[in-house]
Design the sequence.
């Protein structure tokens, strides 16, 4: 499962991490579902391009009772034309327009899988390390009933995890003192830290790590050419690195240092170095190129640091929160409190920074912390530089229709 959200919003607003499914399903603006054939421009859509994403979804949802018949029928559609695939959706689904009761349009942003150039060895051309999770990075999950306490005691339960010792006010041998106020941000559910004598302390910030603290125990997975692209790899949480011999390494999110994300785009705007509307990936890259001596200070504004792990490269897209590979241009991230993972979604928006319609049938296969609300989507553009350019520019208004299996109403669909 990837740790990703909208590229534009993560630059401007919030941290990225995958949001677990849960909560209420969407309350549609209309009280009843409508025929799929009544969707705007439905007859003009090349729905066959959406079929691979549907078949991937069925790998995860086919055992749900409401999905059994649609997925069985979909398995017979390989090689079918647009007319047959349109009839399939018309026969097996009803459309429900997403909204919050006040508006039936929302924000559509974009994300992508970055491509970096790199090597397995450090060189003058590739001096920037991509780190795996440090061995001294330890996680403590704090029970909800104890998050208001000032001080806890914890003990090690594995090499990388602690557990709270209930009913104890001071550490004994082999136990650690935990002062919740020492930890950054307002997240008291999961703490990331390190052990020093009998204390559990916050892990090192990005600035600390840039000075070499804590990295003696972190494996280097690869070395890359460009520190700016490495920063955006951390923003996206996954990507590929092309090595000297042409091979690709696929890396994905392994862990982070426990600090909340701070927006470098907003920081530049607040300082008057850039208009907020220009704080896209491309805008920030251009600013860093023009101000190389300020690069490290800018990056250190964001204390959050992401560590990676090597992933098998199947040749398909990265795996999203549904547990299946994402399909370029046909997968979206949604808020699973409102749209169940696996749902086909008819999306009507516009191409980045234009009024040209972008209307297609996509599939809810991923999630993200900045993706909040029933009519909110993050559009997966795919892999590489061009995909990154589109994702970095995308901040469009759009409408979403959920296609739910007939007999299923919003709020009753089961989750994976």
Sequence:
């Amino acid at each position: 499962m990837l740790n990703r959200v909208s590229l534009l919003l993560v630059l401007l607003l919030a941290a990225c991490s995958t949001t677990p499914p849960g909560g209420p399903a969407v309350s549609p603006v209309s009280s009843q579902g409508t025929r799929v054939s009544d969707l705007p421009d439905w007859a003009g859509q090349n729905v066959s391009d959406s079929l691979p994403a549907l078949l991937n979804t069925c790998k995860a949802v086919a055992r749900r009772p409401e999905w059994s018949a649609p997925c069985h029928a979909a398995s017979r559609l390989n090689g079918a034309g647009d007319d047959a695939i349109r009839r399939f959706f018309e026969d097996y689904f009803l459309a429900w327009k997403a909204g919050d009761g006040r508006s039936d349009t929302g924000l559509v942003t974009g994300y992508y899988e970055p491509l970096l150039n790199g090597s397995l060895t450090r060189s003058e051309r590739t001096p920037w390390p991509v780190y795996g999770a440090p061995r001294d990075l330890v996680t403590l999950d704090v029970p909800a009933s104890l998050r208001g306490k000032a001080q806890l005691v914890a003990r090690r339960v594995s090499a990388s995890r602690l557990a709270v010792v209930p009913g104890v006010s001071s550490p004994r041998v082999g136990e650690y003192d935990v002062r919740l106020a020492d930890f950054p941000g307002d997240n008291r559910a999961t703490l990331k830290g390190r052990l020093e004598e009998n204390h559990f302390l916050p892990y090192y910030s990005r600035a600390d790590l840039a000075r070499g603290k804590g990295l003696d125990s972190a494996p280097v997975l690869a070395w890359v050419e460009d520190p700016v692209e490495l920063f955006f790899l951390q923003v996206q949480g996954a990507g590929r690195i092309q090595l000297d011999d042409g091979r690709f390494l696929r890396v994905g999110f392994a862990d982070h240092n426990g600090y909340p994300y701070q927006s470098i785009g907003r920081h530049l705007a607040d300082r008057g170095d850039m208009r907020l509307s220009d704080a896209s990936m491309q805008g920030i890259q251009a600013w860093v190129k023009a101000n190389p001596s300020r690069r490290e200070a800018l990056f250190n504004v964001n204390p959050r640091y992401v560590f990676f792990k090597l992933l098998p490269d199947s040749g398909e897209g990265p795996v999203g929160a549904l547990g299946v590979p994402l399909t370029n241009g046909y997968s979206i991230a949604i808020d699973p409190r409102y749209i169940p993972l696996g749902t086909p979604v008819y999306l009507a928006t516009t191409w980045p920074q234009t009024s040209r319609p972008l209307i297609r049938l996509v599939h809810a296969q991923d999630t993200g912390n900045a993706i909040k609300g029933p009519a909110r989507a993050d559009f997966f553009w795919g892999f590489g530089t061009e995909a990154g350019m589109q994702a970095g520019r995308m901040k469009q208004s759009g409408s979403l229709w959920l296609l739910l299996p007939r007999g299923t109403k919003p709020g009753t669909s089961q989750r994976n």
Q: What stands out?
A: Confidence is low (pLDDT under 50) at residues 1-6, 12-26. Residues 138-202 form a domain with the OB fold (Dihydrolipoamide Acetyltransferase, E2P) fold (CATH 2.40.50.270). The first helix runs from residue 7 to 12.
